Amino acid sequence: MNAEMINTVPQPSIRAGVRGFFARNKRRPLSDEDRTILATLEDLKADLDLIHRTLDVVTDPILIDSFIYEMNAKNVRYKYFLNLCKEKGLIGELF
Prior knowledge:
mainly alpha; 79% helix; 0% strand
């Protein structure tokens, strides 16, 4: 690329694009329902982490099975609330 090609890009459109990008990332106030959804998601993540740590220690096959069933149920709930966050536009608030 030479200097002439670089100077042909109109500067106002680039600035408008940058302003539009940052304008979309402004945070909005969370409703009580949004806070409840996010808190539930955090609780489920903590529960899943605890189950994973417990599975590393447990040796009884019956307990292992029970933790696996519990982990699967919590994974389904976690996915549900994560999709709910995406639908409500809360995913940007988390990450």
